[in-house]
Amino acid sequence: MARVFYENVYKRWKETVAVKDFTLEIADKEFLVLVGPSGSGKSTALRLLAGLDSISDGKIYIGDRVINNVAPKDRDIAMVFQTYALYPHMSVHDNVGFGLKLRKMPKDQIHEKVLQAAQVLGIEPLLDRKPGQLSGGQRQRVALARAIVREPKVFLLDEPLSNLDAKLRVQTRAEISKLHQRLGTTFIYVTHDQVEAMTMATQIAVMNFGVIQQVGTPQFLYDHPTNVFVAGFIGSPSMNFFEVTVSGDADQVCLVADSGMSLPVPAKKRRALEKYRDKKIVFGIRPEDIHDPDFVPPDTEVAPLDTAVEVTELMGNEVFLHLTHGENNFLARVDPRTAAQPGSKMELMVGMDNMHAFDPESEQTIFSPEEEEPESPRQPKRSPATGVAEGAWITSRESAAPGSAQPEAEEEGKVELDKLAKEEAVTEQVAKPRGVPKDQADQD
Ligand SMILES: Nc1ncnc2c1ncn2[C@@H]1O[C@H](COP(=O)(O)OP(=O)(O)O)[C@@H](O)[C@H]1O
Ligand SMILES: [Mg+2]
After folding, report:
1. The model scores a pTM over 0.85
2. pLDDT surpasses 80 at 430
């Protein structure tokens, strides 16, 4: 059982608080992605778990054991970094098996484990090469193989795809997801890239300034962002925001602005907005919820908005419209058959069913999912300690775990792991944090 639990964890450097009151439960077999902008404390959170940095305050558990004072090599984790940190003078085979050799495993056993890991990652034909003779994607797979031969309870990956080009990133992303499904082990994955987070995670924790903003499944965070930061960070292109005033009475509530905007609020959203009557709010709408009037999806409650089309970008399956309305610049993703022309005026249709609204002071969402969808099984629970909206993981954990969705895949992964001899799980980086070998010059 490799549940990981951070309990009110802090990391302080002299004047910086890199991680602040960090409370997060990561269930066994979860693929948890920690996502946030650069400097938000993601790597620090991971390094605290690996034992590469000391914890200033709070506790971290792996299973039921507090690991604050457990030596890194005894924590049953393996870590993969952005820089692959391979030994350039060693073959791929020896790089993968190096940690096992350090621990004096017999040669034939090492060989067997290396072959199995190589097979999982499709790098058997590369075993005799040196790292210098590999592409970036191949090197990252070697680094992954080196982690999996250790059979760790938890895999930690810190921006492992950042050094790859866009195409390879997409491909390797899928390979890591497959690896997770096959091994059925807990993965904690750090990235600044919300697309990686959305595509790979069973659970996402969004960080900003060392603080967890929200935790939940990718879809839950997309549909129910708890604040302006998460709303703007998750989803690409980003959500559009407008400052508006709530006006009208109980039967007819509109979002109005000096620009001439007047958007009626759907009935199910009115109650939550009552206390904002005649006050300002931040109105949020995703680009895909602004439609060309000729291609409004069925059963969509829409309201017209006058816009000026500045630029159109054909993406093939859709068109991005760069628009202005009054002082506001915003973006719509519309049907590729749109007749929109740059430099023209156009009335677009705003799908108000999917509107978001935020308090302008606190930047917190005004709509709680309970109010919007009382029957929804995905009701977030707010942690009394941190006030962090804990998203859908409580109810969705079972269905999100890849093992339960794909029992055969899990069984296969287990058999594979069983075949690998029991072994202390340590990364060379953890064993020798300062001794990371100089690898290829193109890194960092
Ligand atoms: N060794 C260190 N000494 C001092 N400050 C640090 C150290 N490591 C990280 N920090 C600071 O902690 C904050 C979080 O850093 P980090 O966890 O690396 O962010 P991320 O991985 O999200 O980019 C940053 O402000 C960074 O400057
Ligand atoms: Mg980092």
Report:
1. no
2. no
